[in-house]
Amino acid sequence: MITAAAIAQILIALAFISIPIVRHRYGKAAEAAAHAELTRQGVRPEVLAENGMRFDAGGHETWAPVGIASVMTALAALNLAGNEGGVTLSWIFQILVLLANGVILYSNLTAATSITAAFAKKGDPELARIDVKRFLDAAEGAFPRWVMPYLQNARHAIVFGGSLLVLIALIAA
Hints:
Layout: H1 2-40, H2 47-50, H3 60-80, H4 84-109, H5 111-122, H6 125-128, H7 132-141, H8 146-172
């Protein structure tokens, strides 16, 4: 059963690593589409960078998924090696990954609402003029059709399902 847990952890690592890979490959096109939409709305495209918004693989869009993938890979290695510490650490980190993915899913589902609220909090009239839904739709449209929703949903299914499999395997072990 521990081998099944380790395989699931490797699949979860691959699912997380897909995030920066896709953003690295298609992020510039998404940013260009977002800039074009902002220009169409009469908003300076520079407002994105000024407020820390990016569509590439920079910042937390790389370090967070790579960090999670690294932890999952290390746990899989420990579990495959028969190290008891791997089982203990898997209990801790697998639950954290499950919860973190819930936060990611919630963030994905409420992106337009939360960005609109964040822009409103800043009190910047330029940000207040942005039609966030159209802006996000333009950026999302620059990614290949298989990214959203297919890759995104597959990633969530692998992380949620794989995490449950890991926890069940740990119980059964």
